[in-house]
């Protein structure tokens, strides 16, 4: 018994109970907002929002940090949504348009929420407030298209969304803060290839402008941890910066800005193939490091030469490279863009012009920062995080016999949140928390928990997602991963379960007997 207690003190064990604060009334904060947005985006009920809904949550009440967010007598929740009844009935005499009915059906199908049963009080739960905001803005967009740029979105917010003391400029100023934050340096590992459109449709000036946006984007990465390269394509690959290079940040940005404009046809296929070749030149040690591989392909429309670019994107996916498609301008073939993104709408972006790209490039930075690094069994990984709100994302394939993760704080204090769900874990969504010391994690069994989460799994999930975050600023942490239950934590936990069961049984029997 003593031994059991001791190991229980030393090790936390996988409990597999999901904490989901997006359904907790009155929850607030960035992680909660991100969890809500991730789930709604992933459901694909609504088209891409150009980051508008997140910006609204920050403008309205700083992700709920404003103290009056959950004031008595008001149930707008994190998104300050005042027109809840319109999300149920958008036509006079309590009737519903076909568009709204489709939205309700899609919400029911993907999230299991019967929207007609929702009441205004439910909006205290962040997911419900977020859904209301999304439904209302979709309904308004039927009549009033919303621009993707910050100024246009700000006017739209002022005129249509905000019912309380809207001030011109509020949205713009708050969004600017978010943009600065999203472009803050990121010290994580990543291999990134930029694939740039140099076709004649683009035009010299727009080409230079988009190179400038890319130079700003690469400034986010720490070149000691990140490899960044570039290819320019037109009828063929005309210029490149190798993925393995030892350029300083300034030199890299300078070479991006000074690549020549080829001004010919658009052979996107050739561009993607050129970038795949660059990934193959990486040294073996780097290939083995588990660093995420990302290729961002810019295009201002349909390809006009070469094979179908979707085929090249499939080849990239087979080589373990994630492709992100960025369409620029109004001649975008959406289906082709989606194929270039290997049918993952989370990696498909659009913007009106090469000039608005400057502002929208932040979305690539957001995506790149959250791509998980793959952890290897029997290896260690060291992570340094300077910023207080910096996070690092990891993926671990947990074998049948489980895995033991040892976390050692070399500096400061870092926590890890983990799940086996496809949603990225954070303080708002996790099955367990890693703190200093050993944690044994066993793969989940199929059961009520997975059925409840409306997954359609025939095999239990094996991939664990882990997010590391410092408790305060300036942290250095090391993770060791070992196969199986190295220190007997699982055994202790199993014993604990039995003890707990016996104790509860005794309690129940005693209670019954006493009656
Ligand atoms: C919607 O709610 C508001 C206030 O909560 C109310 O004044 C209005 O009449 C309601 N509209 C409908 C169509 O029910
Ligand atoms: C937005 O920021 C500008 C510049 O800092 C400032 O002059 C303006 O008053 C701000 N507007 C609002 C509505 O806060
Ligand atoms: C690009 O090519 C077109 C003809 O195809 C020509 O009119 C234009 O001046 C060229 N632009 C540049 C910047 O070379
Ligand atoms: C793009 O090209 C494909 C095939 O070449 C064609 O079927 C499609 O209609 C084009 N789309 C646009 C928007 O031009
Ligand atoms: C669940 O799985 C079955 C059989 O594999 C499939 O036919 C069905 O479409 C799946 N449902 C969803 C919602 O993915």
Care to describe what's here?
- This protein has 515 residues and is α/β, with parallel strands linked by helices.
- It is built from 18 helices and 18 strands.
- It has a six-stranded mixed beta sheet with strand order 5-4-3-6-7-8, sandwiched between helices. Strands 1-16-12-18-10 form a five-stranded mixed beta sheet.
- α13 links the parallel β6 and β7.
- α11 runs parallel beside α13.
- The N terminus is likely disordered.
- One 2-acetamido-2-deoxy-beta-D-glucopyranose (NAG) binds next to loops.
Question: How does the SSE layout of this entry go?
Answer:
Elements: H1 2-10, E1 11-13, E2 19-20, H2 30-43, H3 52-61, H4 84-88, H5 98-111, H6 126-141, H7 150-161, H8 170-182, E3 190-197, H9 204-218, E4 226-233, E5 237-241, H10 249-257, H11 268-280, H12 284-287, E6 293-299, H13 309-318, E7 322-328, H14 334-340, E8 348-351, H15 357-360, H16 362-369, E9 373-374, E10 380-385, E11 391-397, E12 403-411, E13 414-419, E14 429-430, E15 432-434, E16 437-441, H17 448-452, E17 463-470, E18 475-483, H18 489-514
Parallel strand pairs: 1-16, 3-4, 3-6, 6-7, 7-8, 9-11
Antiparallel strand pairs: 2-14, 4-5, 10-18, 11-17, 12-16, 12-18, 13-15, 13-17
One 2-acetamido-2-deoxy-beta-D-glucopyranose binds at residues 85, 89.
């Amino acid at each position: 018994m003593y031994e059991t207690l001791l190991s229980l003190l030393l090790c936390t064990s996988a409990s597999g109970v999901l904490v989901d604060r997006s359904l907790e009334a009155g929850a607030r904060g960035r992680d909660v907002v991100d969890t809500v947005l991730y789930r709604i985006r992933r459901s694909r009920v609504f088209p891409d929002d150009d980051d508008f809904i997140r910006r609204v949550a920050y403008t309205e009440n700083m992700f709920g940090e404003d103290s009056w967010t959950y004031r008595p007598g008001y149930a707008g929740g994190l998104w300050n949504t005042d027109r809840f009844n319109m999300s149920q009935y958008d036509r006079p005499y309590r009737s519903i348009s076909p568009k709204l009915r489709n939205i309700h059906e899609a919400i029911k199908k993907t999230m299991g929420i019967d929207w007609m049963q929702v009441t205004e009080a439910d909006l205290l739960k962040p997911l419900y407030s977020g859904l209301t905001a999304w439904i209302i803005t979709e309904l308004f967009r039927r009549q009033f298209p919303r621009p993707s740029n910050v100024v246009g979105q700000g006017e739209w917010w002022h005129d249509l969304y905000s019912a309380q003391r809207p001030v011109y400029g509020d949205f713009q100023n708050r969004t600017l803060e978010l943009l600065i934050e999203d472009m803050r340096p990121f010290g994580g590992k990543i291999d990134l290839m930029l694939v740039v459109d140099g076709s004649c449709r683009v035009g010299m000036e727009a080409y230079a402008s988009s190179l400038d946006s890319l130079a700003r984007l690469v400034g986010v990465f720490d070149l000691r941890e990140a490899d960044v390269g570039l290819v320019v394509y037109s009828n063929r690959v005309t210029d490149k910066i190798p993925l393995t290079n030892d350029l300083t940040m300034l030199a890299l940005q300078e070479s991006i800005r000074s690549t020549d404009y080829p001004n010919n046809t658009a052979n996107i296929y050739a561009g993607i193939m050129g970038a795949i070749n660059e990934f193959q030149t990486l040294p073996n040690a780097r290939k083995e490091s588990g660093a995420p591989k990302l290729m961002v392909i810019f295009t201002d429309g349909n390809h006009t030469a070469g094979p179908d670019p979707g085929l090249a994107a499939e080849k990239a996916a087979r080589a373990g490279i994630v492709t992100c498609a960025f369409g620029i301008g109004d001649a975008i073939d959406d289906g082709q863009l989606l194929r270039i993104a290997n049918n993952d709408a989370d990696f498909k972006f659009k913007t009106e012009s090469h000039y608005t790209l400057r502002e929208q490039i932040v979305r690539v930075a957001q995506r790149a920062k959250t791509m998980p690094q793959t952890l290897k069994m029997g290896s260690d990984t060291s992570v340094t995080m300077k910023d207080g709100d910096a996070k690092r994302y990891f993926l671990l394939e947990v074998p049948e016999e489980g895995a033991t993760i040892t976390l050692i704080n070399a500096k400061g204090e870092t926590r890890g949140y983990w799940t086996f769900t496809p949603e990225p874990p954070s303080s708002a969504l996790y099955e367990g928390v890693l703190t200093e010391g050993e944690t044994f994690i066993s793969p989940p069994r199929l059961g009520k928990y997975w059925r409840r989460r409306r997954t359609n799994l025939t095999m239990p999930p094996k991939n664990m997602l882990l997010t590391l975050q410092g408790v305060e600023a300036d942290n250095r942490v090391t993770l060791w991963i070992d196969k199986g239950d190295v220190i007997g934590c699982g055994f202790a936990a199993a014993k604990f379960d039995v003890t707990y069961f016996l104790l509860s049984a005794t309690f129940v029997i005693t209670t019954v007997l006493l009656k």
